């Protein structure tokens, strides 16, 4: 059930709505700036659920802010601030936006998702089971579910308008040189971040990045980065290939939904309180483990 603290949707009359995504409400501040507001919406199987997940929006925003700062020496990013006190006055008038908002530089976003996989899970595992390859890359025989890959692989996908992610040769979409650059940056972020995350006791099984160009044409990292919505985080100490790992994300939700007779088209059924609460706890734990701090609630 929605509590006073959860936010399923925002509506800020003074600001034009730029985009309402599955999770974020994006407002236009001016020609060059956007406000990304992470709500407590959760999507599963590409459908937004009616039940909010407490603290989720703040976790996504503050964790992304943490990573943008940490990764800024690898690649510039869109983040100006996620500190509510530093926001323009028109934002600060709305307490509902506190903690969950990020002021960013507007980008021309590349219509691709830059996915890096270090382990065999999700669609990668499905592909391997049937084809002994992942997105066209042949892999050695005999790999198990969740096995670590010898080298992380880059498996870009298009951002299809309908929300589903197709595998494509993304080179045609963005050009050879840009494609090579995004691949190299994505792998570097994954490798660097994985090293750090291991010191927090976690593994990044796979993750998705989005990039765009700023006004001057420079590439920058945009959207969210290394959150439980864009990544699979596993406990390093409990990691054991051969079966699914407990993941710091919406795994409880997916597992619950799989027990229902729901055809995965809208409308999605509500979540029982204990599933919503367990999911909220997982998101908070991810934040705490990765940053070493408690989230300001
Ligand atoms: N700096 C930016 N400039 C323009 N668009 C951005 C920027 N950062 C993120 N976005 C876009 O804002 C949207 C964020 O909302 P989200 O809920 O993730 O939407 P979606 O359902 O499309 O994934 C995404 O479409 C993302 O590509
Ligand atoms: Mg998104």
What is the topological layout?
Layout: E1 17-20, E2 24-30, E3 33-38, E4 43-44, E5 47-48, H1 56-70, E6 79-81, H2 89-92, E7 101-105, E8 108-109, E9 112-119, H3 122-131, E10 133-134, E11 137-138, E12 148-154, E13 157-158, H4 171-174, H5 176-199, E14 202-213, E15 219-222, E16 231-235, H6 251-258, H7 273-291
Antiparallel strand pairs: 1-2, 2-3, 3-7, 4-5, 6-7, 8-14, 9-12, 9-13, 9-14, 10-11, 14-15, 14-16
Helix pairs in contact: 1-7, 6-7
The structure holds adenosine-5'-diphosphate and magnesium ion.
Detailed description of the structure:
The protein has 297 residues and is α+β, with helices and mostly antiparallel strands. It has two domains: 17-106, 2-Layer Sandwich (Phosphorylase Kinase, domain 1), CATH 3.30.200; 109-250, D-amino Acid Aminotransferase, Chain A, domain 1 (2-Layer Sandwich). Helices cover 28% and strands 25% of the residues. The protein contains seven helices and 16 strands. The protein has helices at 56-70, 89-92, 122-131, 171-174, 176-199, 251-258, 273-291, and strands spanning 17-20, 24-30, 33-38, 43-44, 47-48, 79-81, 101-105, 108-109, 112-119, 133-134, 137-138, 148-154, 157-158, 202-213, 219-222, 231-235. Strands 8, 9, 12, 13, 14, 15 and 16 form a seven-stranded antiparallel β-sheet that branches. Strands 1-2-3-7-6 form a five-stranded antiparallel β-sheet. Strand 1 and strand 2 (24-30) form a beta hairpin. Helix 1 (56-70) runs parallel beside helix 7 (273-291) and helix 6 runs antiparallel to helix 7 (273-291). The longest helix has 24 residues, at 176-199. The protein is globular, with a radius of gyration of 19 Å. Mean pLDDT is 94; it is low at 161-165. Bound molecules: adenosine-5'-diphosphate and magnesium ion. Adenosine-5'-diphosphate binds next to strand 2, strand 7 and strand 14.
């Amino acid at each position: 059930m929605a509590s006073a603290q959860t936010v399923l949707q925002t509506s800020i009359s003074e600001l034009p709505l730029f985009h309402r995504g599955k999770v974020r409400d994006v407002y236009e501040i001016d020609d060059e700036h956007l406000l990304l507001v992470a709500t407590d919406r959760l999507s599963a199987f590409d459908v937004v659920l009616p039940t909010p997940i407490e603290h989720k929006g703040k976790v996504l925003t503050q964790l992304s802010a943490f990573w943008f700062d940490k990764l800024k020496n690898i690649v510039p990013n869109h983040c100006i601030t996620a500190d509510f006190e530093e926001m323009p006055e028109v934002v600060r008038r709305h307490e509902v936006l506190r903690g969950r908002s990020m002021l960013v530089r507007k980008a021309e976003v590349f219509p691709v998702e830059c996915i890096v996989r270090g382990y065999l899970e999700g669609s990668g595992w499905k592909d391997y089971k049937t084809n002994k390859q992942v997105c066209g890359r042949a892999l050695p025989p005999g790999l198990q579910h969740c096995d670590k890959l010898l080298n992380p692989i880059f498996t870009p996908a298009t951002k299809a308008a309908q929300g589903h992610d197709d595998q494509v040769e993304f080179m045609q979409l963005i050009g050879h040189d840009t494609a090579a650059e995004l691949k190299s940056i994505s792998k570097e972020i994954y490798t660097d971040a994985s090293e750090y995350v291991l010191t927090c006791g976690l593994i990044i099984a796979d993750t998705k990045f989005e990039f765009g160009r700023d006004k001057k044409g420079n590439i920058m990292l945009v959207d969210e980065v290394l959150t439980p919505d864009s990544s699979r985080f596993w406990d390093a100490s409990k990691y054991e290939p051969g079966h699914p790992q407990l993941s710091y994300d919406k795994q409880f939700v997916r597992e619950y939904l799989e027990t229902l007779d729901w055809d995965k088209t809208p409308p999605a059924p509500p979540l029982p309180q204990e599933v919503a609460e367990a999911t909220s706890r997982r998101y908070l734990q991810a934040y705490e483990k990765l940053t070493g701090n408690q989230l300001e609630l």
